[in-house]
């Protein structure tokens, strides 16, 4: 069975860097019409232009997933333009490493708002449109830190764990509408977030703990998202899939 996204309409949040950017590129190269959603307008338009110069179909739309009005407006606008939304890959998120006892309530709220509340807002808006067409594929990008408790700080871990619970609830409720919902847990992926946490020396030490002896790349996550949202992965729903080079359970 061939993996193809020809003429599929794909929304990617957090699409202006890291995993989101790689995901947007892979879908576009697979024939999809890709909407890059994010807050960094300059970067988003640069990426979109690069895609269009290669003959790929892509548009950038500004989106702050914390803003309920903007989320609903963007999803409605894309749906009216394309008459469908086939795939959502939700990559938007951030984490700040702070010792739990030194966290401020403001820090806690900021991270929960982006990483969990934002997930709810975009997922609900898109799911409603998918239900109208009786078809859809949704993937959230969570984190391996929900298992280890490390990597992103308590608010980040809590919010990313919440995404897994939300995935399972949505998968049950939306299955009758032919909508699959899954969640990926990256760990040890070379992104700006990882570089903000690990120095180059720390990365070299990290390699010794990874059985596959390499730090993963954004395409390792993007490729799995493509599989889960393709017809090949059509019997998979409600699942959390850890992608970590074998480190966590080695």
Question: Which helices and strands occur, and which strands form pairs?
Answer:
Layout: E1 9-13, H1 18-29, E2 33-38, H2 41-53, E3 57-62, H3 68-82, E4 87-90, H4 105-133, E5 136-141, H5 145-148, H6 154-174, E6 179-186, H7 192-197, H8 200-207, H9 218-228, E7 240-243
Parallel strand pairs: 1-2, 1-4, 2-3, 4-5, 5-6, 6-7
Helix pairs in contact: 1-9, 3-4, 4-6
Describe this structure as you would to a colleague.
The protein is an alpha/beta fold. The chain has a single domain (9-241), classed as NAD(P)-binding Rossmann-like Domain (Rossmann fold, 3-Layer(aba) Sandwich). Helix content is 48%, strand content 16%. Strands 3-2-1-4-5-6-7 form a seven-stranded parallel beta sheet, with helices on both faces. Helix 2 (41-53) links the parallel strand 2 (33-38) and strand 3 (57-62). The longest helix has 29 residues, at 105-133.
- CATH architecture identity: 3-Layer(aba) Sandwich
Order of helices and strands: EHEHEHEHEHHEHHHE
Percent range of helical residues: 40-55%
CATH class: Alpha Beta
* Amount of beta strand: 15-25%
CATH topology (level 3) name: Rossmann fold
**How many runs of DSSP E, i.e. beta strands?**
7
Overall number of structural domains: 1
Please outline the major beta sheet.
Answer: 7 strands, parallel
By CATH, the superfamily comes out as: NAD(P)-binding Rossmann-like Domain
Low-confidence stretches: none
Please identify the structural class as seen in this structure.
alpha/beta
**Termini separation (Å)?**
32 Å
């Amino acid at each position: 069975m061939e993996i193809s996204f020809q003429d599929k309409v794909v929304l990617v949040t957090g699409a202006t860097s890291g995993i989101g950017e790689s995901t947007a590129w892979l879908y576009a190269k697979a024939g999809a019409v890709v909407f890059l959603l994010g807050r960094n307008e300059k970067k988003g338009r640069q990426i979109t232009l690069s895609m269009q110069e290669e003959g790929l179909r892509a548009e950038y739309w500004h989106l702050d997933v914390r803003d309920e009005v903007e989320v609903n407006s963007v999803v409605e606008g894309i749906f009216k333009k394309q008459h469908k939304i086939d795939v959502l890959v939700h990559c938007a998120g951030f984490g700040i490493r702070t010792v739990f006892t030194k966290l401020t309530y403001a820090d806690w709220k900021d991270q929960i708002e982006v990483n969990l509340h934002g997930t709810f807002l975009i997922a609900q808006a898109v799911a409603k449109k998918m239900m109208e067409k009786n078809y859809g594929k949704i993937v959230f990008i969570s984190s391996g830190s929900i298992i280890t408790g490390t990597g992103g700080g308590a608010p980040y871990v809590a919010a990313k764990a919440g995404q897994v619970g939300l995935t399972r609830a949505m998968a049950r409720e939306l299955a009758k509408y032919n909508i699959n919902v899954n969640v990926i847990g990256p760990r040890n992926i070379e992104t700006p977030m990882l570089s903000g946490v690990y120095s180059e020396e720390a990365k070299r030490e990290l390699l010794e703990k990874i059985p596959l002896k390499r730090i993963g790349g954004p395409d390792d996550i993007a490729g799995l998202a493509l599989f889960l949202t393709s017809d090949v992965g059509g019997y998979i729903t409600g699942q959390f899939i850890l992608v970590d080079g074998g480190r966590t359970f080695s």
